[in-house]
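New to this. Explain these tokens.
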Amino acid sequence: MAHAGIPANPRAWLVNVGRHKAIDHLRRQILRRSKRGELEAEAAVAAQVAPLDESNDGFGDDMLRLIFTCCHPALGPEAQVALTLRAVCGLATPAVARAFLVSEETMAQRLVRAKQKIREAKIPYVTPESGALEERIEGVLAVIYLVFTEGYAVSSGADLMREDLALEAIRLARLLDGLLPGRPAVQGLLALALLHHARRKARATPAGDIVLLEDQDRGLWDYGEIAEGLALVEGALRKPGRPSPYAVQAAIAALHARAPRYDATNWPQIVGLYEVLLRLHPSPVVELNHAAAVSMVDGPARALDLLDALTARGTLAGYHLLPAVRADVLRRLGRREEARGAYRDALAMAKLEPERRLFERRLAELA
């Protein structure tokens, strides 16, 4: 049974769509670390709302169903994704803000406006039929991508990864590939997640300190996941038409995975793929990664020009990895004092403890 409009609590409304087992699933898989009392209260509210008929909707999974339901086309793409990350996937507002490169206050205001629009427009939140999936797929892909990103590289706290989030994103990507088989974007996203997740055991020391890619023990990589990811990205890139940005990102990860040693990495091809990605999906973060790759091909001086131009535009103000990359480039140029200043800037912005310790080590090395 569908309802027109939603109650005053949008999160409770979203949770009810998946019935009681969705509530249990969310508690177990995503929200188990959030406030238990708040979750129980919302579950009690959701239990009073009549469930939807989902017996033949094809999803086969409550979480995926909820994500599709929340990515309502009446909302703008950013509002769809942000609200779904916060209300369904349980990411804290600071983590959602980081995903969109805005302040926590700005994101909180955007979430409030999105909920207000839902109430005022009486947007009906019902499980979409199969014919309506296409208009929601981009939002769903973005949600799964950002859930994996937060799991693989946590925005703040003591631990480098949240394995539960990374695994949940991979699970959802697999389910999406089953629901919509043969989609290059879906295959590219799953490949991207697998190729990055394959390096998880080599990314940190037993004490939790970051191990950079050039120093990782490649014998610790999961070559089963790498093989699956390579097959998926090759299939995605063979499809006719415009390549998916997710497939291009996966192709970059594939080149890292194929390299037997760091110094054998095909950096020219990586630079070329970043240039393709900039045309398909321009963003300041892609520009930053492109500049880092350029430093490996054309040298740190050329990369510094790109970084200075990116800094001058201010689109990554407050993003700690911009001064971190700039510091590394300056260090390689022998400009030690400037590098120390950039590492201090990165340290002041970073909220993840392993990253802070890495920047502190770099500062000590340059002392």
Q: What stands out?
A: The chain is about 65% helix and 0% strand. The longest helix spans residues 104-121. Residues 1-148 form one domain. The two ends are 67 Å apart (CA to CA).
